[in-house]
Amino acid sequence: MTGTHAYSYPTQAVVLAGGQGSRLRPYTDDRPKPMVEIPGTGTPIIGHQLAWLAAEGVTDAVVSCGHLAEVLQDWLVSADLPLRVTTVVEQEPLGRGGGLKYAAGSLPHPDRPWYATNGDIWTRFSLREMAAFHHERDATATLALARPRIPWGAVETDEFGHVLDFIESPPSPYLINAGVYVFSADFAGLLPERGDHERTTFPRLARERRLAGYPLPHGAYWRAIDTAKDLTEAAKELAG
């Protein structure tokens, strides 16, 4: 795509929703992780995600199911969704990279860029700005980067070992993969048939300087829903 053409933002996305969610039991005993409801909203995590994607201009989403796929599929059929949704189910475990490649095969426009998100991420920021960042850097793949809060209190000391301060849940000094991506059309062809792209495709693209990292804007909401405590915190933050 040359600079003379206006950049068209992605309108298609893959949601990876096949996780077991073992740390969220008993919530996940009878439903896959993305079907767990944020307390007080009456809507599962994936419902919030699909609404966010639609608000960001996505018209078509492919949801990759695995664990208890039929529960998720039944909900998608009955829900009033703001975009078109297709589901795919891995018949055998393909790994994260293989699963992503398999899901990408059902995107309506394989020759155009696409978003992807993990099914357990609860976030709000401008995907269009991230896509523009991706395009400006001519990247093959761009991952959103978050700076989560450390769940413990930190202790600040001076060089002599005197305690200077206590800081409750400070931001991590490291950026982490936030589980939201922008991919160029040719990315799917670089994914493994099975296995983990974060150990194969991503390191290769990084060596070739074709992998970009988009820091989430200051104040953007982001949370990975891994435990019951995360659900409680998300509900609190929503209420606040």
UniProtKB/TrEMBL annotation:
<feature type="domain" description="Nucleotidyl transferase">
    <location>
        <begin position="13"/>
        <end position="238"/>
    </location>
</feature>
<dbReference type="InterPro" id="IPR029044">
    <property type="entry name" value="Nucleotide-diphossugar_trans"/>
</dbReference>
<protein>
    <submittedName>
        <fullName>Nucleotidyltransferase family protein</fullName>
    </submittedName>
</protein>
<dbReference type="InterPro" id="IPR005835">
    <property type="entry name" value="NTP_transferase_dom"/>
</dbReference>
<dbReference type="Pfam" id="PF00483">
    <property type="entry name" value="NTP_transferase"/>
</dbReference>
<dbReference type="InterPro" id="IPR050486">
    <property type="entry name" value="Mannose-1P_guanyltransferase"/>
</dbReference>
